[in-house]
């Protein structure tokens, strides 16, 4: 398989028939292949280095002292090393509270939206519901709406409900807004499950709930895993909804709180950098751990 | 099948829309009733004092208030610039914060006019506030309702701040007149230092307004300045043009990065010796390292026309409360505490100590810097507050746009002033 | 009956009531938090409201004001420009990166992860990272100075001429990794036999790309296009965190203008009208995406 790919994408027009067959003299074939591999690795490394440069910069800046930055500028080589900026962002800057808020919002939202979405997807894919496709598209459409059209009404709605400036409002709107997309993706996944399994369960006397819980849901685990990884990241990184329905700084999740941190520690780049690292750490951890699921998820629905 | 579905779909959508329309006029657009009733929970104090030292000081005050009695207060600090833009939203929300840091005078009036501020006449008769000066009493009275809506707690001054050790290093001294000032700038420039620092970039473009204010009150006088801000003159008047002609003389000496960085970064540049001096208010000290305070000094904005009575910018800070608060009694108790000499001294002690208390009996920090500042304010013939405080929060962005534009493209001053007048007209006619 | 049902499609024909509940609960959640507010949003665009008193019905007054609003024009032009630049560049660079990194070989996982990593950062964190780099004494200016291009130094975020482009870069930095993943999946799905056939016909690499790769990627392109358009119209976080739409509206997008109008100037009616415009711009893409999904859904 790899060999075919190698043949397909090689610049070497000499080796046509197969990987081992050479037309040109052996030495120059090896030489050019090594050159190409080196060339590839060089290009890819350069590109990766360029891409990772801002991240490296943030990490370095977060370990400098303010005096160092004040004296030498934010773009200079570091002259100091300290973890104090993290302490400042964590305690004085309120990042600890904000991280907790983020978790308090993200985990229930992911659980709730995926739970509701899998239920709806189950119903729409395994049963001949009236208006099946309409409902599916309606729910998906809700997620494609530009959030701007919803901002003002949702903020006023949460005020009227009395949950303005509380995390419940944020959970509510995130669940409502996101569920449509997950329904669509899970529906696509679930309808490929053969009907015989369900028929067998019905014959055994299982009710819909048991079919859902015991049979379909476990089978949908790969899709659920992928969506969990993705939705965790999206909800964790949300800004717009947080700043619309929340007001108090102690209620803000970490993404919104980062803007507040920047407003407070205006020229103290070390603290801002430390705050950014704290804000990015959870999603990076999820990404590194669930990389496979991430990529799978993106290709499942291919939106966002 | 498709056609059938489509018709049913259309019908459903139609019904839904009608039903929605009916529901629409209710619910969301309902303005929740404003009540001054009693409700539990601590009094919320929304504060824009987000500089590290100021924030610590506020936390101390709130803690001290809580120790006094049953009423507790809860401090909510919001980044200064976010607070500025969100204040109207706070005041108009259904469950607003109870008390707010802000400024008296014309700027509070724009909110008082809309009945958003709690009336405070009753606490002004109490002992804490009875001794306050008449000028302060007038400042805190709403022009439209005649009632007091504000409690002042401190004031500060603006000046050309510099680092004593740096001036000594460069061998220069404080100028008194405009010409001496320009000479000083020349000397600094020859030493490779950007003479005039500015921090009108990032989130703090309003810092540039200080230059406009001062040049206006030095060239045209405080009375003209106040009338201009109130809409009685025009921004495209020849008097305003004179202000910018004078500014042109100083402009070459400004830090070229002045409009790219917020004032906190400009403060750092000043302390590091990259710029020579900066026209700024004492609040900048709350964001500076504590050990630099002793090295700071300032001089008065140079006199341009000796015939014009000397005015200074000395803004007053304090608190007001939302008219929609559900904890009116608690709020009033908090405001009374904030008006005491004790709380004002506590604030001064815990922050950078560069503000002056409004309570006649309260003592300031007593440093030479503060003594000099007090003398500056007391010797002025007139006091102005600052651009937005003397006009309204809505007018400030028009100044920001105009002034930053001027600093970037000074030759377009004619069209800049015309545009400024046009935007200001929209605000004044509201 | 049940047997016939299972061979025709894998769906049960009888719908137990509890299953209806399965659908209705999520649907209700979405209706409450999304559809109902959306309808209200449309209604509010026809009013003038400051959030305090009752809203005043003004019909199409907001829209006619928009036509004369210079800031709206700037924001609209910037949004289109953003769409073209951000969209075009992220698609091109994403495809390029995918082409480069498509072969499974040693270390490929690292390179792909490196390019994809920015996608998991929140846009605010991304913005702040780049803000530090854009400072007058930040990395970018320092590097320019070091390589002798000191004349190119700018106050990137404060200069009217550069702010807009300066804000696109972090957004691109993030988007390329995402588009790359989409194209990687697409490229993997291309049958290698097609390339073989093309090679036998004597096609050069460029011709292979034009006549084999690109046509095969058509469906992925459609997805990428929808993603880009919807993301561009939503782009808010980066611009807001970096410049708030300034300096004097040079980096203003429709999304930031809507937010500042509604939540800072407190002109809720006008802000809603701006949101409706955003919706209309996105509508075409939303509908085409839904139509494609419709066909797939059965």
Automatic annotation (TrEMBL), chain A:
Alphabetical keyword list: Cell membrane, Membrane, Transmembrane, Transmembrane helix, Transport
PANTHER family: ABC TRANSPORTER PERMEASE PROTEIN MG189-RELATED-RELATED (PTHR43744), SN-GLYCEROL-3-PHOSPHATE TRANSPORT SYSTEM PERMEASE PROTEIN UGPE (PTHR43744:SF8)
Residue segments, region Disordered: 1-20
Subcellular location(s) of the protein: Cell membrane
Pfam families attached to this UniProt entry: BPD_transp_1 (PF00528)
Keyword Coiled coil in record: no
Superkingdom of origin: Bacteria
Membrane topology label: Multi-pass membrane protein
Organism: Streptomyces lannensis
Statement: the UniProt record of this protein carries the keyword Ion transport: no
Broad class of where this protein is predominantly found: membrane
Family, similarity comment: Belongs to the binding-protein-dependent transport system permease family.
Coiled coil: none
Membrane-spanning ranges: 40-60, 98-122, 134-155, 167-189, 223-246, 266-288
ABC transmembrane type-1 domain segment(s): 99-290
Descriptive protein name: Carbohydrate ABC transporter permease
From TrEMBL, chain C:
Alphabetical keyword list: Cell membrane, Membrane, Transmembrane, Transmembrane helix, Transport
Superkingdom, natural source: Bacteria
Pfam families: BPD_transp_1
Record CDD domains: TM_PBP2
Residues passing through the membrane, by range: 18-39, 80-101, 113-133, 163-185, 268-291
Localization of this protein: Cell membrane
Membrane topology: Multi-pass membrane protein
Assigned protein family: Belongs to the binding-protein-dependent transport system permease family.
Name recorded for this polypeptide: Sugar ABC transporter permease
């Amino acid at each position: 398989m790899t060999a075919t790919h190698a043949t397909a994408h090689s610049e070497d027009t000499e080796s046509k028939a197969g990987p081992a067959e050479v037309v040109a003299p052996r030495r120059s074939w090896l030489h050019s292949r090594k050159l190409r591999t080196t060339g590839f690795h060089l290009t890819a490394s350069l590109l990766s280095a360029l891409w990772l440069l801002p991240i490296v910069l943030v990490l370095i800046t977060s370990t400098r002292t303010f005096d160092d930055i004040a004296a030498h500028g934010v773009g200079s080589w570091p002259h100091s090393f300290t973890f104090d900026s993290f302490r400042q962002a964590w305690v004085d800057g309120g990042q600890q509270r904000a991280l907790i808020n983020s978790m308090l919002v993200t985990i229930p939202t992911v659980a709730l939206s995926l739970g509701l979405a899998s239920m709806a997807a189950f119903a729409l894919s395994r049963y001949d519901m009236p208006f099946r496709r309409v409902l599916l598209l309606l729910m998906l459409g809700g997620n494609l709406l530009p959030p701007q059209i919803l901002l003002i009404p949702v903020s006023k709605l949460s005020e009227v409900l009395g949950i303005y400036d509380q995390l419940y409002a944020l959970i509510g709107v995130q669940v409502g807004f996101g569920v449509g997309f997950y329904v669509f993706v899970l529906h696509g996944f679930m309808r490929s499950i053969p009907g015989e399994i369900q028929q067998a369960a019905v014959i055994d006397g299982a009710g819909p709930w048991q079919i859902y819980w015991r049979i379909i849901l476990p089978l949908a685990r790969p899709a659920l895993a992928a969506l969990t990884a993705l939705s965790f990241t999206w909800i964790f990184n949300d800004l717009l909804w947080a700043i619309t329905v929340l007001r108090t700084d102690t209620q803000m999740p970490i993404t919104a709180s980062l803007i507040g941190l920047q407003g407070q520690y205006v020229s103290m780049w070390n603290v801002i950098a430390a705050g950014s690292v704290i804000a990015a750490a959870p999603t990076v951890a999820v990404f590194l751990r669930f990389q496979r699921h991430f990529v799978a998820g993106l290709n499942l629905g291919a939106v966002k | 099948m498709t056609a059938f579905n489509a018709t049913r779909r259309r019908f459903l959508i139609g019904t839904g829309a009608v039903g929605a329309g009916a529901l629409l006029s209710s619910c969301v657009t309902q303005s929740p009733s404003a009540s001054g009733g009693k409700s539990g929970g601590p009094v919320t104090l929304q504060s824009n004092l987000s500089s590290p030292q100021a924030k610590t000081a506020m936390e101390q005050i709130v803690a001290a208030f809580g120790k006094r009695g049953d009423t507790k207060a809860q401090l909510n600090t919001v980044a200064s610039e976010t607070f500025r833009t969100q204040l109207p939203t706070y005041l108009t929300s259904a469950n607003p914060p109870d008390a707010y840091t802000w400024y008296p005078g014309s700027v509070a009036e724009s909110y008082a006019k809309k009945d958003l501020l709690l009336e405070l006449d009753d606490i002004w008769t109490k002992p804490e506030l009875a001794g306050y000066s008449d000028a302060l009493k007038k400042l805190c009275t709403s022009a439209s309702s005649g009632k007091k809506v504000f409690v002042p707690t401190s004031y500060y001054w603006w000046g050309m701040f510099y680092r004593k050790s740096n001036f000594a290093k460069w061998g220069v001294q404080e100028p008194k007149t405009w010409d001496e000032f320009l000479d000083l700038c020349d000397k600094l420039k020859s030493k490779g230092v950007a003479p005039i620092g500015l921090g009108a970039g990032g989130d703090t473009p309003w810092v540039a307004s200080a230059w406009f204010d001062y040049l206006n009150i030095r060239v045209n006088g405080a009375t003209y300045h106040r009338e201009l801000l109130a809409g009685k003159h025009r921004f495209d008047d020849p008097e305003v043009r004179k202000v910018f002609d004078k500014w042109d003389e100083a402009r070459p000496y400004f830090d070229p990065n002045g409009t790219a960085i917020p004032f906190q970064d400009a403060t750092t540049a000043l302390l590091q010796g990259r710029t020579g001096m900066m026209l700024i208010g004492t609040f900048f000290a709350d964001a500076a390292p504590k050990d630099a305070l002793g090295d700071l000094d300032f001089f008065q904005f140079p006199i341009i026309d000796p015939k014009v009575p000397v005015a200074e910018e000395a803004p007053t800070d304090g608190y007001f409360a939302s008219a929609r608060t559900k904890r009116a009694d608690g709020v009033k108790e908090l405001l009374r505490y904030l008006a005491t000499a004790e709380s004002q001294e506590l604030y001064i002690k815990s922050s950078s100590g560069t503000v002056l208390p409004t309570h006649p009996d309260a003592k300031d920090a007593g440093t030479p810097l503060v003594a000099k500042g007090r003398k500056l304010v007391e010797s002025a013939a007139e006091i102005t507050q600052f651009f937005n405080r003397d006009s309204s929060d809505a007018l400030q962005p028009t100044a920001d746009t105009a002034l930053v534009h001027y600093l970037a493209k000074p030759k377009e001053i004619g069209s800049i002033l015309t545009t400024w007048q046009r935007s200001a007209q929209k605000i004044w006619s509201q | 009956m049940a047997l016939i049902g299972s061979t025709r499609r894998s769906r049960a024909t009888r719908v137990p009531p509890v299953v209806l509940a399965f659908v209705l609960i999520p649907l209700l959640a979405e209706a409450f938090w999304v559809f109902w507010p959306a309808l209200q949003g449309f209604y509010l665009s026809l009013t003038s409201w400051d959030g305090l008193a009752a809203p005043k019905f003004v019909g199409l007054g907001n829209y006619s004001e928009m036509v004369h609003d210079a800031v709206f024009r700037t924001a609209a032009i910037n949004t289109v420009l953003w769409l073209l630049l951000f969209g075009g560049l992220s698609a091109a660079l994403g495809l390029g990166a995918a082409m480069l990194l498509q072969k499974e070989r040693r270390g490929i996982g690292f390179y792909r992860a490196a390019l994809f990593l920015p996608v998991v950062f929140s846009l605010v964190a991304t913005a702040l990272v780049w803000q530090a780099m854009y400072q007058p004494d930040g990395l970018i200016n320092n590097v320019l100075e070091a390589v002798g291009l000191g004349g190119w130094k700018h106050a990137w975020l404060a200069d009217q001429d550069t702010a807009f482009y300066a804000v696109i870069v972090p957004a691109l930095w993030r988007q390329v990794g995402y588009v790359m993943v989409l194209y990687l999946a697409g490229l993997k799905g291309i049958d290698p036999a097609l390339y073989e056939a093309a090679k036998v016909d004597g096609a050069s690499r460029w011709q292979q790309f034009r006549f084999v790769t690109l046509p095969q990627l058509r469906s992925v392109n459609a997805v990428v296009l929808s993603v880009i358009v919807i993301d561009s119209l939503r782009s808010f976080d980066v611009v807001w965190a970096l410049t708030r739409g300034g300096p004097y509206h040079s980096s203003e997008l429709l999304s930031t203008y809507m937010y500042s109008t509604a939540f800072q100037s407190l002109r809720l009616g006008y802000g809603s009208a701006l949101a409706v415009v955003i919706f209309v711009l996105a509508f075409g893409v939303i509908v085409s995406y839904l139509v494609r999904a419709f066909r797939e859904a059965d």
